Amino acid sequence: MAESAAVAQALALAFLADAWGKRELLAAGERVLGSRPAWLGRLVRQILARFREPPTADLRALRELIETSRSFRSAFTGWTPRPGIAAVVANQPSMAQSRWSVPELCTSHELAGWCGWSDSELDWFADLKQLNSRSAERALQHYSFQWLPKRRGGYRLLEAPKSRLKSVQRRILHEILDQVPTHEAAHGFVRGRSALSLARTHSGQTVLLRLDLEEFFASIGAPRVHRVFRSLGYPDEVARSLTGVCTTITPCSVRDTLPSLGFIEFRDPHALAARERLKKRLAARHLAQGAPCSPGLANLAAFELDVRLSHAARSVGARYGRYADDLVFSGDAEFARRVARFEPLVGAIALEEGFRINHRKTRLMRRGTQQRMLGLVTNQQPAVSRRERELLEAILNNAVRHGLASQNRAQHPNFLAYLQGRVSWVEQARPEQARKLRRLLALCSKAEADSIIAL
Questions:
Q1: How far apart are CA 304 and CA 320, in angstroms?
Q2: Between β-strands 247-248 and 286-287, what pairing exists: parallel, antiparallel or unpaired?
Q3: Global confidence as pTM
């Protein structure tokens, strides 16, 4: 740290360690410098004019004000002796008042103990100096990586934390993030809400507008995650470490393995631009898609987006809901008349909040067509589409006649559990539509058990 920066940091810490007033700030500065130079009085007046209350939650802003002050900079120019640090005066770090019952962690040392790590292990897992992200050695990296193809072209990166980091991220999720309520419009990864609850909110409407946020998790960078933890009352030092533990930078060696686009996509300028945006987002610290705490942090980071879109929807007589990266708006005839002008407004709000709409996935569905969202048809009561139910019934019938293995064309490791999940999804939306499927599934289960006993 440069000499002037070190003195500015020491002064900022000392100013925040005592009462906030001219006399107290002058005394604190004198203790740090060992004297009371003339420029100190001018600096104190400037600080009090900028901050009427002590900026305890923003030490950096106070330090930057001191560093850029003309009075302070004049002390380091010319032939006069430059100021030095005679004593370090600092207040004991403490949490700001929080409305939620989150663990009280005032220092990085306390955070390390709460995580079950040593101080050096916290530094290693938080990786604030980006040492691990620059390493090409997979053994030194905290995540495992896998590129998965999307149904409509392109690829998404699954970044799964390894066991020790994953266990701490789960604890952060359950003991910190779950204590904070999300916006009422958020239905994804929220206890008591689901895709079905969102579909019920938007069923039976005149018009349904569905939009998709591009690379939702990768779009949420470290500054936004840091603000979430600061809003929970954590000191800057602890918030930075928590941010490091919950975010990652994708190594260059992984970004370079992004599979090539298909023949048609390679000639699509929009697909090429989206590919470059993805690489840029992954090169910065971001939420990992695959980390236990990412959905909870994403919901909190998108709180302001939900607030603004809810107000915008109400202004045009519409309802709003979000499931992860899916934005859903619905309404009656009034919304149907204004929906063409409403869609660009949503895109503008998303951009201002740091997100980007994937316009290729935008769908506007009116009552005369099939209104689909999150795998459900919502024209009336939410339900799985008839085509999907009939396909599932055919698979179960064939499985009863010819065995489960004959129908497992996608090579699911536990095909029976996969079928049970699909039947449960149908049953959750419309129980009466799943009765026949349940009977067929029971026959499949019995046949599978009989074959195991025969072996």
A1: 14
A2: antiparallel
A3: 0.79
Contact 287, 298 (CB under 8 A): yes
Contact 275, 261 (CB under 8 A): yes
Nearest residue to 159 (alpha-carbon basis) of 179, 138, 131, 183? 138
Is the CB of residue 175 less than 8 Å from the CB of residue 296? Answer: no
Contact call for residues 171 and 303 (beta carbons, < 8 A):
no
Cβ proximity of 225 and 91 under 8 Å:
no
Task: With beta carbons less than 8 A apart as the criterion, state whether 176 and 160 touch.
Answer: no
Q: What are phi and psi of 160, to 5 degrees?
A: -100, 120
pLDDT of residue 140: 75
First to last CA, the chain: 72
Q: Cα(290)–Cα(88) distance, rounded to whole angstroms?
A: 43
Consecutive 10-residue averages of pLDDT for the chain (455 residues): 82 86 91 91 93 80 90 82 83 78 90 94 90 71 91 87 97 96 96 94 96 96 95 91 96 90 76 90 96 97 97 96 97 94 96 94 94 93 93 93 88 90 93 92 80 57
